[in-house]
Structures are given as C-alpha cells and as structure tokens.
Amino acid sequence: MIRVGVNGYGTIGKRVADAVSAQPDMELAGVAKTQPNFEAHTAVDLGYPMYAAIPERAPLFAEAGIETAGVVDELVADADVIVDCTPSGVGAENRTMYASYDTPAIFQGGEDAAVAETSFNARANYDDARGADAVRVVSCNTTGLSRLVAPLSEAYGVEKVRATLVRRGGDPTQNSRGPINDILPNPISIPSHHGPDVRTIFPDLAIDTMGLKVPATLMHVHALNVTLESDVTAAHVRQLLEGESRVYVIPEGFGLDGAGKLKDFALDAGRPRGDIWENCVWGESISMEGRDLYLFQAIHQESDVIPENVDAIRAMTDAADAAESIERTNRTLGVGL
Ligand code: NAD
C-alpha cells in the first residue's frame, strides 16, 4: 500500500484525497489544513486523519471540536508520497520541508515548472516521472491540451497548435474572483503562458495560445486549430479521440450544447461533486480544412487533474506502468462517460 498525504485541502486537495481513498493500492495517511472550516468537518466525517498545516493554529482545531492527529511535518514524515495542493506559490515554499523528510512530492500546476524534476501528464509522459522525487501535475488547461496533443502527434504528427482558451473567471466557491460582467483578454499579451506550459510536456511542440476570462464558474472552453502533418478526415480524428479513455466525444443529439448542461449531465449521472474528469470534445465541431483540424472542447478545471495526480503517485513509486495505472485509476473513479 502506498501511504499518501495531502497537504492543502481545498478544491484540488479534497478531490485528490477522495480519489486516493478509492484506490485499492493506496491508503490516505491524512490531510493537512490551515483552518477548521466546513471542509475540515467533512474530512473528519469521512474518517480522514487531520493534521494542522500551520502548527500554531492547532489549538483552533481543538476549539472547533476537531481532533488532530498531529502537525503537517508528522504527516510528511509518515507518508510515502505527499501531494501538495496548496495555493500557487505555497507549494514551492513547502518543497524544503518535503525534501528534509525525503518524502517524494507532487506539486500542482499553479507552481512554476522549476519546482519539480518533471511536469506530468499520464497520457503523454508517464515514464518521465518514474522514480522521481518531485513531479508537477500540469494545470487544468495544460492537461486538457496535452490529452489531445499526445494522440494527434502519435497518429498524424502535429505541425502547429493554435488554441484560444475561454477561461472561467473563478471556481464556484471563489466569490472574490471575476469578472462578473465583462469579457477580458487575459493575459492581454500574446502568446499566453499556456503554450509554454504545454511545452513542459512536449518540448518541441509549436504552439501559440491566447486566453480570455469570462463571467462563468463552470468550465473552461477551448477553441482549437491544429495543423496536422498528414492528410486525414474528420471522421478519422473523431475515431482517434473516441479511443482515448480521458476524452469524451459529445454525441450529436444529446443536447449538450454548453458547460451548464455538461455539468448537469455529470450531476444526473451521480458523479461526485458533478465532476467531469474527461476532456469534453463536441463531436460535430471536429472539422478538417486541408490539414487544419478545428474543434471545441470543454475542460472541468476542478477535476480533470485528479486522475493525473493518482497516476503520478504510481509513477513516482514505480508501482505500475502507464497503461496499468491509467486503467486502474479510470476504473476506480469511474472515468469514461
Ligand atoms: P484552493 O484555494 O481551493 O485550495 C488550497 C487550500 O490550501 C486551501 O484550503 C488553503 O486554505 C490551503 N492552504 C493555504 N496555505 C496553506 C499552507 N501553507 N499549508 C497547507 N494548506 C494551505 O486552491 P486549489 O484551486 O485547490 O488550487 C491548488 C493548486 O492546484 C494550485 O497550484 C492551483 O493552481 C492548482 N490547480 C487548481 C485548479 C482549479 O481550477 N481550482 C485546477 C488545476 C490546478
């Protein structure tokens, strides 16, 4: 059993903790939180050992009636792997603590690539993380792009990717984010940072990205143009993407015309928190103009990186090869719409 600790229990951390608990070959050693809020109470109800992420705040947990198993250092010392799910920038500050206990650590996409030996996407470069001490699971958008670039490169060769990312202003709980009534080129400078981030997975890829932020919390939507190296039909591309376990090609006739209905679909299907771990590619948008592929896809920012974190744990501990790990993660979480 791989003992996994989760440091930072917010949007990503609570999902990683649940996903780890669902794995037959992993055990959740505990979670570390900064404050005894509603998420802390839920974690305790779920039976997750609770650690104080900031030792001086440990008494606040006791005052709130939450028993702690210790402080974060003890969790790090006890775990075989720690998954850092703290806000952007805090992970890099925690790196020394993880190294001082020789505990391999996974960081999230909000950190700079330099935080880890390798950036990670299970479909694209699982083997690069095998045996590594520090791995960064790339951001939600980079994960979404990588899951398309990997099969397209292998099957047809990719000459150039151009992507426009229509990004949600904030997650549903982030009530201080926005815009609430605007459409922002964001960042205004071109290309956006997303292209270079995809190159942490595909170093030789030609990719330019542009970003916008809109008043939505549900999902991101990407408008993609990929110049392929081969002449193929849209039907071929569709078949290729339908064969990818973490890509859902939305069938025509389902009436899934936007992120709102996709989220409803996931909730109706009984998915935890309405999570959508797969890229959602609109089947009828898959089009070829010469060697130029066009398509739209929606990315659920809160959850697409969760199966990737589970696979990163197996890669770092050399517990399975890529195909085995991806299959096990998909089966236990229920990935595949
Ligand atoms: P979040 O704010 O929802 O959760 C972070 C949690 O860490 C909060 O509970 C916060 O209280 C806690 N925290 C703060 N300082 C801490 C510390 N020193 N020690 C332990 N915990 C601490 O953030 P999130 O959305 O879960 O993002 C976490 C990481 O995942 C970031 O790098 C982010 O860029 C990345 N990410 C986020 C999303 C998304 O859409 N939410 C998607 C992909 C990747």
Key features of this structure:
single chain; 337 residues; alpha/beta; Rossmann fold; Dihydrodipicolinate Reductase, domain 2; 2 domains; eight-stranded parallel sheet; eight-stranded mixed sheet; 16 strands; 33% helix; binds nicotinamide-adenine-dinucleotide
Polypeptide structure, described:
By secondary structure, the chain is of the alpha/beta class. It folds into two domains: 2-138 and 306-333, Rossmann fold, CATH 3.40.50.720; 140-299, Dihydrodipicolinate Reductase, domain 2 (2-Layer Sandwich). The protein contains twelve helices and 16 strands. Helix 1 (11-21) packs across helix 11 (306-316) and helix 11 crosses helix 12. The chain is globular. The relative contact order is 0.14. The chain binds nicotinamide-adenine-dinucleotide. The site of nicotinamide-adenine-dinucleotide has 25 residues, from helix 1.
Layout of secondary structure:
Layout: E1 2-7, H1 11-21, E2 26-33, H2 38-45, E3 50-52, H3 58-63, E4 70-71, H4 72-78, E5 81-84, H5 90-100, E6 105-107, E7 118-120, H6 122-125, E8 134-137, H7 140-156, E9 158-168, E10 184-185, H8 194-198, E11 207-214, E12 220-228, H9 234-242, E13 247-250, H10 259-268, E14 279-282, E15 287-289, E16 292-299, H11 306-316, H12 322-333
Parallel strand pairs: 1-2, 1-5, 2-3, 3-4, 5-6, 6-8, 7-8, 9-11, 13-14
Antiparallel strand pairs: 9-12, 10-11, 12-16, 14-16, 15-16
Helix pairs in contact: 1-11, 11-12
The structure holds nicotinamide-adenine-dinucleotide (NAD).
